[in-house]
UniProtKB/TrEMBL annotation:
It comes from Phytomonospora endophytica. Residues 110-254 form the DinB-like domain. InterPro entries: 5peptide_repeat (IPR001646), DinB-like (IPR024775), DinB/YfiT-like (IPR034660). This is Putative damage-inducible protein DinB. It comes from the Bacteria.
């Protein structure tokens, strides 16, 4: 098998090339031009399609899951239509976009009620099944590990200033750049559900304290963390950190429920 690693193909031209069953990881296609390309059976994860144009496209059996903004299909911005339909299907989804402290507290309470039901459902499965991955996605336990990582990153680190708040079982996202010696990242760990839930309870307690003390003044402020780790940013709105917590919890619960249904089948 031919392998290309750490090479610069800027300005290269590929014509009549067979890339069937190839693998692309951390590849930059910025400014690339593609014509008469067959993407049948392609799976794309963690991709950015900003300022992308697809013309003369035939789509059938296409599934898109992600954050959509300014997505114009045949002259129609479909993103607001999709958002409205998702809100119609589940009115609690609106609670994940709060505007004041009480709204954040209500949103978190609603989210945790949903997660209680999902975790109760997961407990009806054999423990080994909760380590199974469906269609290449995270297992149920990996999903909980990732949320523990996200909560520690955006609340403990960004809002409370704990430089390295992570537990050894926390799990960054797959495409993360990595922070050797700073952020733990054990993809092969197989902790029990109860072990991961114990970490989760600690994170939930911290978020609860932050939300109890939340004020309009805090929401209007910004936070900066530049020490090694994640996030490492300046001037991040306090509000945005809490919105990440709600969004991560909401979306990953939907993924978890989807995969539990697949495992039942």
């Amino acid at each position: 098998m031919t392998e290309f690693r750490e090479q610069d193909f800027s300005g290269a031209c590929f014509e009549d090339v067979n890339l069937r069953d190839t693998s692309f990881t951390r590849i930059r296609f910025n400014g690339a031009r593609m014509r008469e390309v067959d993407f049948g059976g392609v799976r794309v994860h963690g991709a950015l399609f900003g300022d992308t144009r697809l013309r003369g496209v035939y789509m059938r059996g296409v599934e898109i899951s992600g954050e959509l903004r300014d997505v114009v299909v045949n002259g129609v911005d479909v993103a607001p239509l999709i958002e409205a339909e998702l809100d119609r299907r589940d009115p609690d989804r609106v609670l994940m976009r709060p505007g004041d402290p009480d709204g954040f507290r209500a949103g978190w309470a609603a989210l945790e009620r949903r997660w209680e039901g999902t975790i109760a459902r997961a407990r009806t499965f054999p423990e080994d099944t909760l380590h199974e991955r469906v269609d290449g996605e995270w297992s149920f336990i990996q999903t909980l590990r990732h949320l523990n990582f996200a909560y520690a990153s955006w609340v403990d680190r960004m809002l409370l200033g704990v430089e390295a708040p992570w537990h050894p079982l926390d799990l960054p996202w797959d495409e993360a750049p990595g922070w050797p010696g700073v952020v733990p990242w054990d993809r092969e760990a197989r902790p029990s559900l109860d072990e991961v839930l114990a970490v989760r309870e600690e994170r939930k307690a911290t978020i609860g304290r932050v939300l109890t003390a939340l004020t309009d003044e805090l929401l209007a402020g910004e936070v900066t963390r530049t020490s090694p780790g994640y996030p490492s940013e300046e001037g991040v709105p306090y509000r945005e950190c809490l919105l990440v917590v709600l969004n991560e919890g909401w979306e990953h619960r939907l993924f978890a429920e989807r995969d539990l249904t697949a495992l039942e089948g």
